[in-house]
Amino acid sequence: MHQPSPVILQSPPPTLSGIDFSAHVLADKAQYFKQLKKWQKRMLHVQQAYYHQRKRAILVFEGWDASGKGGAIRRLTEKLDPRGFNVHPTGAPTPIDQSKHYLYRFQTRLPEAGTLAIFDRSWYGRVLVERVENFASESEWQRAYQEINEYERMLFDDDVRIIKIFMHISQEEQLKRFKERLNNPVKRWKLTSEDIRNRQRWDDYESAINDMFRFTSSEAAPWTIIPGDHKWYARIEVLKTIVKALSKNIDTTPPPVDPNVTREAFTALGIQISDE
Fold this sequence. Notes:
By secondary structure, this protein is of the alpha/beta class.
């Protein structure tokens, strides 16, 4: 009988402490766009490889409010075929969601063969906001670590690759972005009362985040912390992290052309493959 793979946690786990945001800067605009073009092109090759090989992947984005999750996801998907991925923004659970196991609403959004599922916030809400704001009891969020690990192990054993990104910013940068949003009519809707309340409990959230890393960063599905005070740097690092992780042990070269299509194109249309 096939035995499920064991959940092996990273040792030592990632942690938010000690990150020097000033060391993670990409200040040259021309270099930023050059790197963006390069990694977006490589991401497209990865997406095409997953499509042709019928592979599946889940990309999980967590992070502080205003940490750049949306901007990173937008650059990640900007050049991709929209038929090959789905972005799932995760809000508060509905009353129907609350009447079921918290993983249920995510189970119904898993990727089909050949596609990517991108979660802008995820099942980790059980051990973050639901823990800090007392939406889940202590026994519920404590047992969630094991539930999540087993859930991800099940997906990993089913050949689903899981990439988990945490966007980290400083309190000073978050305050700056809140001010920018409040004073920009186009972005004003992004700042909510919930964002302001969450900021007041920064220390509680930081403790919950580090526990999340400690208990759910496994060898099969590790957490990657992206320093996000400088948006250009963060966006490139997200792309690089995901491309490298999804490319591991995957042939990303384009598949050979079908000889029958080549023959038919020449016979019916007079088109042949160029030697260039």
